[in-house]
Amino acid sequence: MSWLFGMNQRPQDFSQYVPEGAAGGDQDGAGDPGDKKGQKPGGGAMDAYRFDSSALERAAKAAKDLEKSAYAKEAFDLTRMQEETKQKELTGVAKDMERQIELAKAEGKRIEQEERRKTIHEQSKLDQQKSQYQDTLARKR
Q: An example Gene Ontology cellular component term from the record (predicted)?
């Protein structure tokens, strides 16, 4: 359970996301003025957050290759069917959750009615005891 609260975790290494030149550099810009060759002024610490377009370029190239392929229609149909399957699974899960919610509501109402019945039963017992006591008092007079 300690993993749930963030205990016993090793520090994460985010160095894979930092470009080579930005690792360990000065963030306030203090340092050798000759270190920033070829960079725009004011870049500094934000260099690590530049957009890497290589993944987007690979995806565009794959899309072009797929368009040229003889199996493009089949690949598209397969992808569409996979997406429909995922949607149906998620719809089923949502319906199961809704059913569980309705069952929980019905169970809550059942428990509430049971408690009400018990309360009415106890109230009638108290009324009966009270009337017996009143009868006993009336007979003693």
A: mitochondrial membrane
How many Å apart are CA 19 and CA 39, to the nearest integer?
14
Residue type, 83: E
Token pair 């598209």: residue: 76
Using alpha carbons only, what angle is made at residue 139 by residues 136 and 141, rounded to the nearest 5 degrees?
115
What is the per-residue pLDDT across 24-68, written as a single tens digit (0 to 9) for each? 544 444 444 444 454 555 555 666 667 778 888 998 888 888 788
Helices 54-68 + 72-140 axis angle, to 10: 120
User: For the segment 58-97, what is each residue's pLDDT rounded down to a tens digit?
Assistant: 988 888 887 888 888 888 899 899 999 999 999 999 999 9
Q: What DSSP string runs through 63-131?
A: HHHHHHSTTHHHHHHHHHHHHHHHHHHHHHHHHHHHHHHHHHHHHHHHHHHHHHHHHHHHHHHHHHHHH
Tell me how far CA of residue 120 lies from CA of 47, 113, 123, 125, in angstroms: 73, 10, 5, 9
CA distance 35 to 32: 6
Q: Which of 27, 30, 77, 68 is nearest to 47 (CA)?
A: 27
Whose structure tokens read 């996301």?
A: 17
